[in-house]
Amino acid sequence: MTNLSQSSANFPWAIAELPALRQALLDLFCEVAYREGDFLLSSGQKSTYYINGKQVTLHPQGGLAVGRILLPYISPETVAVAGLTLGADPIVTAASVVAAYEGRSLAALIVRKEVKGHGTQAYIEGLTLPEGSPVVVLEDVVTTGQSAMKAVDRLREAGYQVEEVITLVDRQQGGAEFYEKVGVKFQAVFTIQDLQKRWQELHA
């Protein structure tokens, strides 16, 4: 079995070329996020595997890799990245910070699941942008697509233009079909097949 912890520590996450970085990120998912067993998902579905995306997005090198890998997926006219708390919080932050290093300006917006009960009572935390601003929703793992769609709906209600969801992992359990049906563009960095194939290789 490959010693991924050692290879993760030694890998040049900040300067590696994107193809090598993508492979390193996939390996990190297999190391810290992917587990097999009997699980109940937030969607209510039962599954023989589970992906805890926060183990990657909150990882010191993983967060950097997530931002670097996602940035090319985000169109130049996009002015903000957003997502539903809690899973998307580190992802939108990583993309925003990496964008700044690349000379791009991407605001980070966090969409609450419930309206804040004090202060401004806002659903959306972050800069207030002009009406019609193009925003892309980011997610760690998509199953049915309903979770990220909540963020899309809240952002649209706030007056933003939201036409796309980008996820790190697509479990391929209806999310892509759902977004096609509602007219939202959908992209995924990895599919569940990518993770499972690599996991098997590393645990052979």
Could you characterize what this model shows?
- With 204 residues, the chain is of the alpha/beta class.
- The chain has a domain at 53-192: Rossmann fold (3-Layer(aba) Sandwich), CATH 3.40.50.2020.
- 40% of the residues lie in helices and 25% in strands.
- The chain has eight helices and eight strands.
- It has helices at 4-10, 18-33, 54-57, 60-70, 89-101, 146-157, 175-182, 192-202; strands spanning 34-40, 46-51, 80-84, 107-111, 124-125, 134-142, 161-170, 185-191.
- The strands form two sheets. A six-stranded mixed β-sheet has the order 5-4-3-6-7-8, with helices on both faces.
- The N and C termini lie close together (7 Å).
- Homodimer.
- This is Orotate phosphoribosyltransferase.
- Pathway: Pyrimidine metabolism; UMP biosynthesis via de novo pathway; UMP from orotate: step 1/2.
- Belongs to the purine/pyrimidine phosphoribosyltransferase family. PyrE subfamily.
Break the fold down into its secondary structure elements and pairings.
Layout (H helix, E strand, L loop, with lengths): L3 H7 L7 H16 E7 L5 E6 L2 H4 L2 H11 L9 E5 L4 H13 L5 E5 L12 E2 L8 E9 L3 H12 L3 E10 L4 H8 L2 E7 H11 L2
Parallel strand pairs: 3-4, 3-6, 6-7, 7-8
Antiparallel strand pairs: 1-2, 4-5
Q: Any descriptors?
A:
204 residues, alpha/beta, Rossmann fold, two-stranded antiparallel ribbon, 8 helices, 40% helix, 25% strand, globular, PRTase-like
In short:
The chain has eight helices and eight strands. It is an alpha/beta fold.
Residue fraction in strands: 25-35%
Cα-atom Rg, whole angstroms?
Answer: 17 Å
Reported CATH architecture of the domain at 53-192: 3-Layer(aba) Sandwich
- Overall shape: it is globular
User: Order of strands across the widest beta sheet?
Assistant: 5-4-3-6-7-8
* Stretches with pLDDT under 50, minimum 5 residues: none
Report how far the terminal alpha carbons are from each other: 7 Å
Mean of all residue-level pLDDT scores? 93
Largest sheet: 6 strands, mixed
Number of helices: 8
Number of separate strands? 8
Topology pattern, helix = H, strand = E: HHEEHHEHEEEHEHEH
CATH top level label of the domain at 53-192: Alpha Beta
Estimated structural class = alpha/beta
- Looking at the structure, the CATH topology of the domain at 53-192 is Rossmann fold
Which percent bin holds the helix content?
40-55%
